[in-house]
Write a structure and sequence with these properties.
- The chain has a domain of 135 residues.
- Helix 6 runs parallel beside helix 8 and helix 10 packs parallel to helix 12.
- By secondary structure, the protein is an all-alpha fold.
- Helices cover 60% and strands 0% of the residues.
Length: 265
């Protein structure tokens, strides 16, 4: 797998996220201890639960068992309608990602349009290669432009597109940064902007910082923008010092203090 694509894998397992949200309960999941013979393979959801929170040896055994389960892809396809999240569906996404089941990528891309949790995009990212990356990038941009896309999905999409160094149209980025109703989305858009300006040394989008610093709520977003400005190379900070005029008289004392610090030589 291309190293850049490998970095798109989620830092924590999808299973941990859903089990934490559900209090770690395994209710509704089949168990090999109930009605199964000692020689029967455990059902795939039970094997999926062994992918995290177990020893590395147990995890490898679970992966091997999943790979040899007959009809696994057909069973996982049944979980891909993602409009109603469930523990089984999160487990299915984890299995698809870990086993690298690229045959399911078309169905997963289609199903992700109805996923309000954003977790399906992490599974998709784990399956991308050089051939499928362009298609996924196009779909991700389209989803960001759709107002029906959930806030959680927009955050996942912005993070992915930043890691892929995929540029967005300025008007779309402006809308996400300044107009979106979700503070989390606006913060993610600012992180996207930071990735290009600080890590990739592409400061063209910094013109949006001035608009953000003028009258953006909550004040934490204005602070985040100032942190971004402070990370820029000194030459760029000097060339764009006019941005700080918008925050010099900010009503929040913490913003004013950091504004003065950011403008210091």
């Amino acid at each position: 797998m291309n190293p850049r694509l490998r970095n798109l894998l989620p830092r924590c397992s999808l299973v941990l996220a859903i089990l934490a949200a559900s209090g770690g309960a395994r209710a509704g999941l089949p168990s090999s201890r109930s009605g199964a013979s000692g020689h029967s393979a455990p059902p795939w959801p039970e094997l999926a639960l062994r992918l995290t929170g177990e020893s590395e040896a147990e995890r490898k055994r679970a992966i091997q068992a999943l790979r040899t389960l007959p009809g696994l892809e057909a069973e996982l396809r049944k979980e891909l309608p993602l409009a109603e999240p469930s523990t089984r569906r999160f487990l299915a996404l984890d299995v698809i990602a870990i086993l690298g089941l690229r045959n399911l990528l078309p169905e997963l891309l289609a199903a992700s349009a109805h996923d309000d949790t954003g977790y399906s995009y992490h599974a998709i990212n784990a399956l991308l290669d050089e051939d499928s990356r362009a298609q996924a990038t196009r779909i991700y941009r389209e989803r960001l432009a759709e107002r029906r896309t959930s806030a959680a999905s927009k955050v996942a999409l912005l993070d992915t597109l930043a890691r892929l160094a995929a540029p967005l149209e300025e008007r779309l980025l402006e809308r996400l940064l300044l107009e979106d109703s979700s503070h989390e989305v606006r913060s993610a858009a600012l992180s996207y902007l930071r990735h290009f300006a600080v890590r990739l040394r592409q400061p063209d989008g910094l013109v949006l910082l001035e608009k953000l610093l003028e009258d953006t709520q909550p004040y934490q977003l204005r602070l985040q923008a100032l942190y971004l400005f402070s990370e820029l190379p000194p030459s760029i900070r000097r060339a764009r010092a006019r941005l700080l005029k918008a925050c010099a008289g900010d009503p929040h004392p913490e913003v004013r203090a950091f504004c003065a610090k950011a403008g210091a030589p």
